[in-house]
Structure formats: C-alpha cells, structure tokens
Amino acid sequence: MFQIRRVFWLALLPAALCGHAQAATTGNVPMQVTATVVTSCIVVPVPLVFTSVDPTADADASTTIAVTCTGGTAYNVAIDQGSHGSSVTAREMTSATTTDSLAYSLYRDTSRTLNWGTTSGTDTLAGTGTGLAQTIPVYGRVTSGQSAAAGVYTDSVNVIVNY
C-alpha cells in the first residue's frame, strides 16, 4: 500500500507543477540603464603647404585643424616649435639635400600677428567642445629676405589639445 501511495503522489507531481505554472502572473519590473560619457577630444590637422616660395616676398598659406571634443569639454589648442625650430617664434623647415633652412611662422589670425605657441592663455586657442568637429584655422608665413637654395623644405609640428 505504501508503494502505491508513493507512485500515486509521484504521478500527481508533474500535474501539480504544470497547474502552478499556468497560474503564474506577469509583472513589470524596471531595469535601470546607465552610461558614463567620458571627456575626450580628437584632433585632425591638415598639412600646411606653401606653394612656390619667392625669397623676395612673403609667402602665405593657410590650413585647418579639426577638433572634436565631447560636448561641454573645455579645450586648449597649442602648436609646438616643430622638429627643427628653437622656439615657437623661431620655427624652421630644413632641406633634405642641403644644409639650408627656411624660417616660417604660424599664426592664429588672418593678419598674422597672433603667434601659435604652447603657453596656455597667451599663444594658444581655447574652445568648448560641442560633440561635432570644430574647424580651427592656422595661418602660415615664410618671410621674405631669406637666402635658401632651391628645393623642398619640410618640418613637422605637434598639435597639442589639452582638455
């Protein structure tokens, strides 16, 4: 008899479980979703190219730097003295074939009076990120009166974005 009762209860167990599952109710439980946006900036400079330089006249050129910073992020753009310059006010391009160099300057304004440098608040450019690329102009000048041999002259400057 004990054996039959045990089999009977074991046989009823699946039915009891199924009946209980059908009686289950649904509910809404909120799940919070969060994200942390970190401050960041991406800088993309476009090369500055002086076309034909006549040593008897100033040669001007311009280019841009695209800065994309997280919205609301304060940033400061600086440009160093370059690979061959002794300071931000004495930048030089050098020739790969001669020992000559060609002095040039980088400016923040079209009248070419505000030098680009690395001293925050003095010769850099401040801005606030919008999340979109912001175009910053760079103006260059090779001054007249230099005695450099014909050829190609190059330099490489670092564009620094502090944020």
Summarize the structure.
It contains 1 helix and 9 strands. With about 160 residues, it is mostly beta strands.
Shape: elongated
- Overall pLDDT: 89
Question: End-to-end span in angstroms?
Answer: 84 Å
The ordered string of helix (H) and strand (E) elements is: HEEEEEEEEE
- The total tally of domains equals 1
CATH topology: Immunoglobulin-like
The CATH C-level name is: Mainly Beta
Instruction: Give me the side-by-side strand order of the main sheet.
Output: 1-2-7-5-4-8
Reported CATH architecture? Sandwich
**Count of individual helical segments:** 1
In terms of per-residue confidence, which ranges show pLDDT below 50 for 5 or more consecutive residues?
A: none
Structural class: mainly beta
Work out the number of β strands: 9
Descriptive report:
With 163 residues, this protein is mainly β. 13% of the residues lie in helices and 33% in strands. The chain has one helix at residues 2-22; strands spanning 41-45, 59-69, 74-79, 91-95, 101-107, 125-128, 133-142, 153-154, 159-162. The chain has a 6-stranded antiparallel β-sheet, with no helix packed on it. The longest helix has 21 residues, at 2-22. It is elongated. The termini are far apart. The relative contact order is 0.24.
